[in-house]
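== Fold encoding ==
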Amino acid sequence: MSTCNALTVAIAQINPMVGDFAGNLEIAKDAFQKAGEQQAQLLVFPELSLCGYYPGDLLNESAFIRKAYEALAELTTFSRQYPEITAIVGMPKTSTGPGKPLYNALLAIHNGEIIAEYHKQLLPTYNVFDERRHFEPGQQGAVSIDIDRYKVGLMICEDGWNDNADDYPVNPYEALAEARPDFVVSINASPSNIGKRAQRHKVICGAAHRHALPILYVNQVGGQDSIVFDGASFAVNANGEIALEWPAFQTVIDTLGFVEGGFQPAAQFVEHQIDNDQEFILQHIVLGLRDYVRRCGFKQVVVGSSGGIDSALTIAIAAEALGPENVIAITMPSAFSSSGSVSDSQLLCDALGVPLYSYPIKTLVNDFGTQFQSSFTDELRGLSLENLQARLRGTILMAYSNHSGAMVLTTGNKSEISVGYCTLYGDTNGGLGLIGDLYKTEVYRLSAYINQRANREIIPAAILTKPPSAELAPDQKDTDSLPPYEVLDEILKLLIEGKQLAEHEYQQAHDFVAGYRATAAGEAVYQRIVGMIARNEYKRRQAPPIIRVRPRAFGAGRQMPIAAKH
C-alpha cells in the first residue's frame, strides 16, 4: 500500500444516451472541466459511457463502432488540455482474436494517450442483460494504473458480482487481491429496481471487506427505453463500510479524497438518500418517462382518463415529470360509464392543472353495432362489445397523437397485464407504460403517497376508494373476473418474480399463497391464474415498453414463448 499524500478523485455520474456520440462527448468534456476546477487527478466515468448503455445490435453496425472510435480519438486529444487528470472511460473495442468481435472495454486516458486497457471478464446474460451476444470475455486478469504513486485496480460492473464464484468460473477479485492495488475503480451501468441499492451494497461491501480492497463504484444515471439507471454511486473502504454515497436519480460531478487507509469525503459533502420505497418508485418512473420522451423526440403526452386509479396515477406522474402543460387528458365516456368517470377525471385534472378534453363514444359504439349487425347478421354483444369500447378509445387516443404529436401513455398495471385483463389495440395502445411494473395494490399505495407528499388531495378520494372497474358492461367490477387484488398480487409475485423478490417479500408471498392454496377453492383460483398468465403472453408481446421498477419485469427481463403447453 502507498504512503503518500491524498489523491483527489472525481466521479462522473452522468446520463449518456445510446448512439449520441456528440452529446456524450460534450458531457465528458464538461466533466473534465469540472474535475479540473476541483483539482482532481483521477476522473471516473461509467461503463460504455462514450456510446451509452446498452447499444444492443447497434454494436453489429460498423458505422456505430467507427463513431465510437472517432469519439474516443476526440476525447483523447481533448485530455491534453488537462494533463494532470487521468480519465477512466468505457466503450466497445474491437477484438482481433477468436470469438465475438468486440470487448466491453475500460480505457485509461492521460494527456492525449491511452495508458491502459481492461476488458470486462464476466458478461451477464440474465434478466435484462445479453452482453455475451456481442462481447467476448476479457482474459487479462488484473489490470492497474499508477497515479501519483497510487496503484489503482480496474474493474467493470459484473466483474464485481461473482466473489462467491456462483455464476462464473472466474472471480476477478482474486487476481486484484493478489496485485494489491491501493483501491479499485469499478465502472458500472447497473439498472435500478426496488431493492437494488441494498443488493449492491451487500455484494460490493462484502467483497471489499473480504479482500481488504477499498472500492469506488461509479454508476450511470438516466432512462434508456424501459430501463432506468439510478446512479447512487458510492465509495467503500477496506473494512466494508461505505465512506460516502451520491444521490440517486441525479447527475453528479463530485470529488472525494483517497489517502492511505481509505476514502475521505469532501468537506462540503452532504448525503441525500431516498428513505422510503414510494419516493424511490416515484423518482424512478419520473426519470424514466422524462428521458424516454426527450430522447424519442416528443414534447407532450396524452392519456385516456377513465376516472379510475390507473389513469389517475399515470396522469399525476406525467405531470410531475413533464409539467402539467405538457400532459393532455381525454375522457371518453360510454353508455356504461359512471358519472364519476367524468367528474372524478375533472377533479384530478383541476388539481394538477392538466387540460381535460371530452370525446363521448356512445354514438360511435351504437353506429358500429348497427353496421356490425347489418354486415354479419348478428348482434354485437358480450366481450366483443366490451372490447370494441376499449378499441374505440385507443383509436381516439392514437388519432389525437397523430394530430398533435403527443405520445400516448398506456395505463395498465402489472396485475392486469399479467392475466391479460386488457384489450389488445385498445387500452394497450401507446408509446410507453408508466405503471406496468406496479401491481394494483402498489398503484393504490403510490397514489396515496402522492397525496401525502403534496399535503393535499391531488388524486381525489373518490378515485382512491371506488371499486376498480373497466366500466365496459352494466355494473361491472374487476372482481367479477379476478380474485381481490390483495390475493391476486401475492400469487403473481410468487409466479412471476419468485426468488428474485427481496427475501421478506418472497416469504410473505410464499406463506400467503401456501395458506390460500390449502383449500380446494383457493387451489382452483391459483391454477386459473397460472393459466391466465401463460395464455396472455401474446398480448404482452404486442404491448408498448413499460418502465422496469421491480426485479423481474415483463419485456427483456422475462422471455417466454407464446406458443407453448403449460
